[in-house]
Amino acid sequence: MRHDSNNSSAAGPRADASPLVLPRKRGRKKVDGLVEARRQQILTAALELFGTKGFHRTTTQDLADSADVSVGLI
């Protein structure tokens, strides 16, 4: 029995193979610029609050209220 190295059933890409499907990313899609804008909004609010109330007296709720975002985002 002779082994033919040009056998089409050898390992390798198949003509009928379905395309590679990547797993779906979780969560919401990030809107360009929105993430950075929110980050700057939170940082600006933090600097103002730390300047007036002090770092140790500023709560995450204070920061969220000042930045107009949810506490979970902080």
Automatic annotation (TrEMBL):
UniProt keyword annotation of DNA-binding present: yes
Region (Disordered): 1-32
Keywords: DNA-binding, Plasmid
Domain HTH tetR-type: 36-74
Superkingdom of this protein's organism: Bacteria
Regions of compositional bias (Polar residues) in chain numbering: 1-10
Name of this protein: Putative transcription regulator
